[in-house]
Each structure stands twice: as C-alpha cells, then as structure tokens.
Amino acid sequence: MKKLFIAMVMAGFCLLGAGTRVSYAGEIDLLLEKLVDKGVLTGAEAQQVKYETREQMKKEITTGKSESLPAWLQKIKLKGDLRLRYQYQHTKNDGDVQKDVNIGRVRMRLGLEAKINEKLMAGIGIATGSGDPRSTNVTFGNTKYDGLGGAGYSTKFEIKLDYAYAKYSPLPWLELVGGKMLLKDVFWEPTDLIWDTDITPEGGVIGFNKSITPSTSLFMKTGALVVQDDTSSTSDPAMAYIVQAGASQKVNSDVSLKGAFTMYNFSNIKGATSSGKSSGTNTGNVTKGSSQYAYNYNMLNPALELSIKEPFKAIGGLGVEKLKLFGEYVRNTEAPDRNTGFSMGFQFGKDKVKKWGDWQVKYIYAMLEKDAVLDVLPDSDRYGGKTGMRSHEVSFTYGLGTNTYFGLDVYRSWNIQGSARKAPETLVQVDWNMKF
Fold it and tell me: pLDDT band at 300, cuts 50/70/90?
C-alpha cells in the first residue's frame, strides 16, 4: 500500500509538470516502467496506478478542475449522432395501389453545450435537412423529398441551425430557458401524439421542479412560443402559450409514477394562412401553405406514465430491466367536433440501449381526429404527420456495440375521415444509429 501511495504521488507530480502538454500519459507510462524495472512496483500494481491516475484525470476534466487543459475547454461539451436509414412506404388509396417507395436517408446532428458560469449555460446545435421543423433527414438522390426539389446526382445539402438557447438556474428549483429550445426543456410528454420530437420551439419558458418528500416531486412549466411572426400591421402574430403542471411519485424502490396536465393555447391561428410545413388536414386548411384555418387550438392534454424496474425478476428477469406503461389524451376546445385524440402503449427491455446486446421493444397506438391538434405538430412518420388518422407503431432497438445500435420501426396507419377514408399506409424504417 505504501509503494502504491508513493507511486501515485510521483504520478501526480508528473501530471503537474506536464501542464497543458498532451504527452503526460506517455510520461506516466515511462515513470511506471522504471518503477517496475527497479522492483518498486509489480506489473499489476503499475496497471492499477495507471488506471487510478486516468480516472482522476477524467474526474478533474469533468468538474473543470484539471490543470492540464485550458479552463474554457473544460466548460464545453460536444455531442453528436449519425443515422443511416432505409425506408419503405406502401400506400393504398381507393382500391388502387400506388407505387411503392424505397428510399435511403442520412441524418447528422452535432451539438455543443457551454457552461458560462455556475448558473448559466448555452446550447447550440446544427443538423442536416431542409429546414423542415419535423425532420432533419437528407434523402439520397433527392428530387421529391425534404421540401427541396433537388435534382439528384449527389446534390449537396445545407447544414441548418437546429437549436440555440440559454438556460439560467438562479435557484436549485427554478430554471429559465429562452431561444430556439429543445423540446424536453419546454414540457414533458410520454409519447409523440401531439409533438414530433424533432421540433425545437422558439420563445421562452420558466420551469419549477421541487422535491417535497424523498419520494415525491412536483414540476411546472409555463411559457410563450412564437409560432409565426407578425406579417402585417392588421393582424397579431400566431402564438402558443403553455402551462404544464405535474408530479413524480416513487411508490417503492421498483415502481414510480409520473403524470402531468398541460394546456396549449394556440392563438391567432383562426383565419391565418397555413404553413407550407403543415399537413393540410385541419378544417379550412385543405391546401397547405395557401388556405386558412377555421379554428384556433386550445388543447387540453392529460398524460401518465408508470415505470416498473425488473418486472419479471420473480421468474428470472428475462433480461427486462424496465417496463413502462404510458398514455395521453388531447381535446381541442375551440373546435365543435372531430376534436379529440389519444395514445397508449408500452416499452420494455433496457431503459437505454448503450452497448452490445442491450435491447428494447416499444408499441404505441395513436388516434387523432381532424381538428384535435394543429397539423404542423404531430410525428411526421406517423401517416405523414397528418391529423384525421389512427395508427399502430412497433419498434425494436438492439445494441451493436458501445454507442451504436440497430433500429426497426414499423407503422400501420389509416385515414379515419373524409373522401380518402381508410387509405391504409405501411411504413418501415431500418436504422443504423451511431452516437459520439
């Protein structure tokens, strides 16, 4: 033990002497080799010192206390991901089978988080895509998809600003976020019934999160989002106002419950010209980008999620780390009818797929009537992001190694109203995901 202590002290002096040079690891290795040659340490003890020294360095860099790296560099965190996708789509309208669509896609996202001080951080992200708020995909040989109308022949695509926001936490239970924000900072949602997960809302949000007992915490988020800027002197800009109140409860060490009630008030939508990014399915909006909405969207949205750790441990576990049961409901009080929707489903397997052999299965059934939600919001993969539909979704994720995994997502969807009633669609997505 004394020899190990002496070796650790010497390694520490070596690190201090190295300063900002990148050669510190090599110097430690040389030092340990000499100590082994002189019989001060055994080979196993040298490996232990090397491991413990590296772990200490990682800890110092993570906490911003390393003397071998500039302080500004220790306050920045980079993250990103790359996804390769094969997609098959089969749609049937009025008994006629349309051409099956087989496409290849790629998505790249890169993000940066910077710690300005102990209470303030900033986040910036870029991504591939056409600027569509519900997609960051690039389609190979694109002549039709992504809204670009490209010419194919390996056309180059632009990189877009995905998000840019600041987050200020003056108190442990208080958080203020503003800018082009990540969805998880704006509200909590157990499924993508209402909001496509690629959307990065613009505006400001105040969040509260307070533990009132060791097993119970309350949270609340409220804010204003800019939907469309003021385009004339006679009409106000389209805005969304959000209030969400919720709670998390640990029933015991294995079971927890989370729920929330959210109100979304989309004002100045009625009579406004629809976005070219809409689905063209809400009442009045028969042609996206040129027709006018007939209603505003004041949406009431209760949601609930039940989590159970190792639900099958009594019969050997079956490799199921966690089981989640979830559901949510939405009603638009501004529309007289065709104004409700809901989703329900489950997820089981690993809570997060991180390494080889990890797996996860998820199923969601979703239904949205024509005017339940604003048609620029729902998941773009579920029946093209349209309202007036019902859909089954089954996904399977399997870890291929550290930070890389295979994904299979299958949607079977139908139109539930209008002249194209039924019109079944099958969408299959096969993904290879890599995180870094």
Answer: very high
Lookup: tokens for 239: 């805005």
Q: Is 325 exposed, middle or buried (0-12, 13-18, 19+ CB in 10 A)?
A: middle
Whether 92 shows a pLDDT value over 70: the answer reads: yes
Separation of alpha carbons 223 and 242, rounded Å: 5
**Which residue carries 């609340």 as its tokens?**
220
CA distance 292 to 289: 9
DSSP state of 99: P
Q: Rounded to an integer, what distance in angstroms lies between the CA atom of residue 385 and that of residue 379?
A: 5
Please give the Cα distance from 388 to 27 (Å, whole number). 66
Best CA proximity match to 129, nearest among 78, 90, 166, 83: 83
pLDDT at 192 over 70: yes
| Distance, C-alpha 357 to centroid of its chain | 22
**DSSP structure string for 147-196:** GT----TT-----EEEEEEEEEEEETTEEEEEEE--HHHH---SSSSSS-
Identify the structural domains of the chain with CATH numbers, from first to last. Answer: 2-62 (no CATH), 75-435 (2.40.160.10)
Q: 419 pLDDT exceeds 80?
A: no
* CA–CA dist 67, 19 (Å, integer): 6
Angle, nearest 10°, between helix axes 24-37 and 2-18? 150
What pLDDT band is residue 375 in, cutting at 50, 70 and 90?
very high
CB 241 within 8 A of CB 224: yes
Cβ(93)–Cβ(422) under 8 Å? no
DSSP conformation class of 292:
B
Asked if 435 contacts 406 with a C-beta cutoff of 8 angstroms, the reply is: no
Mean pLDDT (whole number) for 60-70: 64
Q: Which amino acid is at 420?
A: A
Residue 118 CA to its chain's centroid (Å): 25
Of the candidates 183, 288, 315, 306, which has an alpha carbon nearest to the alpha carbon of residue 240? Answer: 183
Mean per-residue pLDDT over the chain, rounded: 86
The one-letter amino acid at 313 = K
Whether the predicted model's global pTM rises above the 0.85 cut: no
Give the Cβ contact number of residue 73 at 10 Å: 11
Q: Which residues contact 70 (CB under 8 A, 6 or more apart)?
A: 20
Q: What is the DSSP string of 370-394?
A: TTSS-TTSS-TTSGGG-SSEEEEEE
> What angle do helix axes 43-62 and 24-37 make, rounded to 10 degrees?
160
- pLDDT of residue 15 exceeding 50: no
- Reference 324, options 351, 349, 347; nearest CA is 347
